[in-house]
Design goal:
There is one protein chain. It contains nine helices and eight strands. The chain has 224 residues and is of the alpha/beta class. It is globular, with a radius of gyration of 17 Å.
């Protein structure tokens, strides 16, 4: 529903190519990758059935995208990041994309931790996203956490950004800072950013939906 609504809102102003959706966590461990994977599979089998849907992990390490999908994790971003960004083209990028039985196509990230994994530079992020956009009708980007140079380059190119939060004080405090920087520093308008609450342990929740919406001054688009 969220992706369909955003598609209608952005269609008139959208540039040629794929509709791009970014998934960003307020902090690590809130469930951003799980949300991105499940939305991508559901979308490819539902609203976008028959369309080209790609999920890409754009993080610099600690990628868990392959695990819930049961994929081998062959290829992915590492071979691409070892090439100069200006040498990347559709053939090179497509060679690293794996297909899931749902029809979803996936560009895996690196499972190695940051510092060991090859860093996703802003130039590489832009080049990879550009080529994936040519190959797809809908491109979903797992952006992990933070507003590093790669994410700062990718977020303004997203037609819609989903920020994943959890009902805990730390997550909400960090979400406040993140949303403010996305609005002021990156000039992302409110209608292009949605909040999804992932409540992993209902009994431990310390904030209600209404409290969270009041604290962040935004409505939640979904509660899981």
């Amino acid at each position: 529903v969220l992706l369909r609504a955003s598609r209608r809102q952005q269609e008139a102003a959208a540039p040629a190519g794929a509709q791009v959706f970014g998934f960003l966590g307020s902090k690590g461990g809130v469930g951003t990758t799980t949300l991105a994977v499940n939305v991508a599979v559901a979308f490819s089998q539902g609203a976008a059935v028959g369309k080209r849907v790609i999920l890409a992990d754009m993080r610099s390490g600690l990628s868990a995208t392959a695990f819930p999908l049961g994929l081998k994790g062959q290829g992915g971003t590492r071979p691409l990041l070892q090439l100069p960004a200006d040498q990347l083209d559709q053939i090179k990028v497509e060679a690293q994309v794996e297909e899931h039985r749902s029809g979803l196509r996936v560009l895996m990230g690196q499972i190695e931790p940051p510092g060991v994994a090859v860093e996703m530079s802003a130039a590489h992020a832009e080049a990879i996203a550009r080529e994936l956009g040519v190959m797809s009708d809908y491109l979903l980007l797992d952006l992990g956490v933070g507003l590093g140079e790669a994410n700062r380059r990718l977020l303004p190119r997203c037609h819609h950004v989903v920020v994943c939060i959890e009902p805990q004080r730390t997550s909400l405090t960090l979400a406040q800072v993140l949303l403010n920087e996305m609005s002021t520093g990156l000039s992302l308008p409110h209608h292009r950013v949605s909040l999804v609450l992932v409540n992993k342990a209902p009994s431990a929740a310390s904030f209600t939906k209404q409290t969270i919406e009041g604290l962040l001054n935004r409505e939640l688009s979904g509660v899981i």
